[in-house]
Each structure stands twice: as structure tokens, then as C-alpha cells.
Amino acid sequence: MSPRNLALELVQSYYDHFNAGRRAEMMSLLADEVVHDINQGGTQIGREAFTAFMQHMDHCYREQVTELALMANEDGSRIGAEFYILGEYLRSDEGLPEAAGQRYRLRVGAFFEVRGGRIERVTNYYNLQDWLQQVNTSKPQSGGA
Fold this sequence. Notes:
Blueprint: H1 3-20, H2 23-27, E1 30-37, E2 43-45, H3 47-60, E3 61-72, E4 78-89, E5 103-115, E6 118-126, H4 128-137
Parallel strand pairs: 1-6
Antiparallel strand pairs: 1-2, 3-4, 4-5, 5-6
């Protein structure tokens, strides 16, 4: 298999594990010193920091990736992803509106660097203002989380 196809398969597996809630398997695809650029936020380094970030996200949100499209350069070192995230805002996140089970659908762009069969960088981008508008106008879901 070509380096390009191996990288595409690696990132596809990353999202498959994400959607299935298999966080340990998802984290196993990352380099020890993975660089994680958080949407409109800072940069974290290391698998441990990424794991803590995902635990926080899983506490506050329930999300699924849909309509995933992956692109890679020829040597498989850089991969781009575009998808929609379907989510539910479960618990209030610090500095953000009150959570009440609001649902949202966001277009997301993600960028990856791959070396040695591991993901070395993950950069995510989505329109925060769009998310804020959706959770501020969305009707709460009955039954809660």
C-alpha cells in the first residue's frame, strides 16, 4: 500500500474510533508527543494532554463525525479532513452558554501530520460563532443526558 493510502487509512481509523467511543484505540494512533491545536485556543503537546482534552469533551458533549472526506499529499505526511460534527451539548463548559441538551451540526476542517505510522499533529477548526448561535437558539431535548 502507498504511503498516501496508509495515511488515509490511519486517519479514517482515528475517526472510526472516535465515532465508536473507543478512546484508547484512538489515542494509540497518536505519537507520544502529538501536537494538538485546539480550535480558537491554544496548543497542547503530548498524548496525555490530548487524552485529558478528550475526557473533558466527552463529559460536556456527545459528538459524531458524518460526511467525512479525506485528502492527502503523495507521501502521506499531510492529511486534510472535512466533515460535519453532529453533537449534543450535555453539560455546561466553562465560559460557554448553559448546556441543556441542545443539538448542533457544524462543518469542521481538520489537518494532520503523519510520520512513522503515527499522527504527530491534529489541528481542528470550526466556526465558533455558528456553534454559539445554534446552542443559543436550539430547543433543549427532553430527558436530558
